């Protein structure tokens, strides 16, 4: 097939416009065009009064080869790449040892699924509960302030991405089209078909719950095993080779191929891994606040007179500002039409995150506004970033009233360094609740200074961003893992522990659902190839 890229059409184009564009561009007749489908649809909103839809199309004609030769020098006309997933291995029939996957978020889910599809019958260990029980626990915390430290926004089937916007796009390089494999598996499990072609696909929490259950069922049907409430408390390592694990209940499982896909908040597991001698480095992450505006303000700023258009949906944004103090401030995990949610996994700490449903029809838009920090800001060992995060979260808990309410401040008061007495027009969405206070000491001074400089700068790009009544809620600390479990770039094994495969966000190799899922596929392939190589010997 032939791929045509950068086909630009008006937002209100008619039904025949795509076909007409193909015929015009390739100079072929209607009877030479056999079929076409939309591979990607995005938009260019730089001119708000003339927003253009941008299509990438895969087409089939009676003369594909001739057209590819004719347009060989044309950047918009290429051969369609192979989008099918091709397994790298198949499990030997007399497989004596089953691989173990620790963690059942997006990374562990795809690692387990691909291993199961290749016949390796993985054992998947998840410290939290299955997704529906986990959802009850999470909503219970939001409503009643009762925290289950093993079943919450961070821990449980589906991972932290389950209680997020469900964004399925990533900027990682993907020459092997692993992202297509991920999207196809999600559609098979019940995600809407549109995630295959919209430029910024998302699913939302309620749809993710049912999908995760279906993917779990497929793994089990293929011989895999999934254990919930199965926290790994010890690794068995002999002469630099992983040999098994011990679970919190005392049970021991043996395997020389173990993937560790534990997410960015498994701090006790990070400590255990470090104590076992697995090589870990401190790495940069970011901290800041959640900012809320009315979604209509963002829609108008981004889309002008086209705000509310069904094709465009709720507007998002992506912002970055480089500050005079040398820091960078950027928007992170922007959730159109969503809510700010309580995301702690540890008692007496407050952590914020953002979430949207598929419809994205809540009143507010929210995003993290965060400042980049690096190990020079917490220079005392590979686990020092954890303590840095904990200190901020514990202080936020006290600032919010020591009852899991979050400290909050209107943007106007924050910029003027005042304690607000009342809320403005933006209604806070954070559950359990908020306490108005001065956020000036919620973060290190360099962070406050940087965010105070960045918000007015962002207002030049998104009119209304620095609106007095917009709301800041603190603190956002779990943007990514504060550690990197170093792995060999070829084998993907830990650089000093053979058979241990650091994977996904928790190991420092992903950031978001899609990149974590892609990393899970890579890890599954590396494990399969290693198992087969050892089996033949």
Describe this entry's structure for a reader.
The protein has 537 residues and is α+β, with helices and mostly antiparallel strands. Helices cover 29% and strands 23% of the residues. The protein has helices at residues 17-26, 64-70, 106-117, 131-144, 178-188, 205-221, 267-275, 295-303, 384-399, 411-416, 445-459, 504-507, 513-536, and strands at residues 2-10, 33-44, 52-61, 77-79, 100-102, 123-125, 225-227, 232-238, 241-247, 252-254, 258-260, 280-282, 285-294, 320-322, 328-335, 339-342, 352-355, 364-373, 406-410, 434-436, 471-476, 483-485, 500-502. α3 packs parallel to α6. The longest helix has 24 residues, at 513-536. The radius of gyration is 24 Å and the shape is globular.
- Shape, per Cα inertia axes: globular
* Distance from first to last alpha carbon: 42 Å
Low-pLDDT runs: none
User: What's the arrangement of strands in the largest beta sheet?
Assistant: 14-15-18-13-21-19-20
* Fraction in beta strands: 15-25%
Strand runs, count = 23
Rg measurement, Å: 24 Å
Average predicted confidence as pLDDT: 95
Q: Main beta sheet, described? A: 7 strands, mixed
Number of helical segments? 13
- Provide the structure class: alpha+beta
Q: Report the helical percentage.
A: 25-40%
List keywords for this structure.
single chain, about 525 residues, alpha+beta
Secondary-structure map with pairings?
Blueprint: E1 2-10, H1 17-26, E2 33-44, E3 52-61, H2 64-70, E4 77-79, E5 100-102, H3 106-117, E6 123-125, H4 131-144, H5 178-188, H6 205-221, E7 225-227, E8 232-238, E9 241-247, E10 252-254, E11 258-260, H7 267-275, E12 280-282, E13 285-294, H8 295-303, E14 320-322, E15 328-335, E16 339-342, E17 352-355, E18 364-373, H9 384-399, E19 406-410, H10 411-416, E20 434-436, H11 445-459, E21 471-476, E22 483-485, E23 500-502, H12 504-507, H13 513-536
Parallel strand pairs: 5-6, 5-11, 6-7, 11-23, 19-20
Antiparallel strand pairs: 1-3, 1-4, 2-3, 8-9, 9-10, 12-22, 13-18, 13-21, 14-15, 15-18, 16-17, 19-21
Helix pairs in contact: 3-6, 3-13
């Amino acid at each position: 097939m032939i791929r045509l890229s950068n086909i630009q059409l008006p937002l209100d184009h008619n039904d025949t416009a795509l076909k007409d564009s193909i015929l015009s561009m390739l100079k072929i007749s209607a009877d030479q065009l056999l079929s076409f489908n939309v591979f990607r649809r995005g938009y260019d909103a730089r001119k708000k009064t003339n927003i253009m839809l941008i299509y990438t199309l895969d087409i089939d004609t009676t003369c594909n080869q001739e057209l590819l030769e004719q347009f060989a020098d044309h950047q918009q006309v290429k051969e369609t790449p192979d989008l099918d997933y091709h397994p790298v291995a198949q499990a030997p029939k007399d497989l004596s040892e089953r691989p173990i996957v620790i963690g059942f978020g997006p990374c562990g889910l795809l690692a387990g699924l691909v291993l199961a599809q290749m016949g390796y019958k993985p054992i998947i260990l998840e410290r939290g509960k299955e997704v529906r029980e986990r959802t009850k626990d999470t909503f219970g915390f939001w409503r009643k302030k009762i925290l289950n430290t093993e079943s919450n926004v961070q821990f449980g089937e589906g991972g932290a991405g389950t209680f997020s916007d469900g964004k399925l796009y990533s900027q990682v390089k993907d020459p092997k089209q692993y992202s297509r494999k991920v999207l196809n598996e999600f559609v098979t499990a019940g995600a809407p078909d549109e995630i295959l072609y919209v430029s910024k696909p998302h699913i939302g929490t309620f749809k993710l719950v049912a999908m995760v259950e279906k993917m779990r069922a497929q793994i089990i049907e293929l011989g895999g095993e999934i254990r919930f409430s199965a926290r790994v408390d010890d690794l068995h390592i002999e002469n630099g080779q992983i040999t098994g694990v011990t679970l919190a209940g005392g049970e021991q499982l043996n395997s020389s191929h173990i993937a560790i896909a534990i997410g960015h908040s498994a701090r006790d597991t990070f400590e255990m891994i470090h104590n076992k001698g697995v090589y870990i480095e401190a790495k940069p992450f970011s901290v800041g606040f959640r900012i809320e505006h009315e979604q209509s303000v963002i829609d108008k700023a981004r889309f002008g007179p086209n705000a509310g258009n069904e094709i465009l949906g709720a507007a998002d944004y992506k912002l970055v500002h480089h500050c005079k103090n040398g820091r960078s401030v950027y928007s992170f995990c922007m959730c159109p039409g969503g809510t700010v949610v309580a995301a702690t996994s540890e008692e007496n700490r407050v952590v914020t995150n953002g979430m949207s449903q598929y419809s994205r029809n809540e009143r507010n838009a929210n995003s993290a506004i965060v400042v980049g920090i690096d190990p020079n800001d917490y220079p005392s060992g590979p686990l020092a970033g954890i303590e840095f995060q904990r200190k901020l979260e514990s202080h936020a808990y006290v600032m919010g009233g020591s009852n899991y309410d979050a400290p909050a401040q209107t943007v106007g008061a924050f910029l003027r360094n005042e304690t607000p007495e009342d809320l403005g027009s933006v209604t806070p969405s954070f559950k359990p609740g908020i306490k108005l206070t001065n956020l000036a000491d919620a973060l290190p001074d360099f962070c406050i200074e940087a965010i105070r400089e960045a918000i007015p700068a962002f207002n030049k790009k998104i009119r209304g961003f620095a609106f007095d009544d917009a709301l800041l809620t603190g603190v956002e600390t779990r943007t990514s893992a504060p550690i990197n479990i170093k792995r060999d770039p070829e084998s993907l094994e830990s650089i000093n522990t053979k058979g241990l495969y650091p994977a996904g966000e928790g190991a420092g190799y992903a950031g978001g659902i899609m990149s974590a899922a892609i990393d899970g596929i890579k890890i599954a392939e590396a494990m399969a190839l290693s198992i087969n190589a050892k089996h033949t010997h």
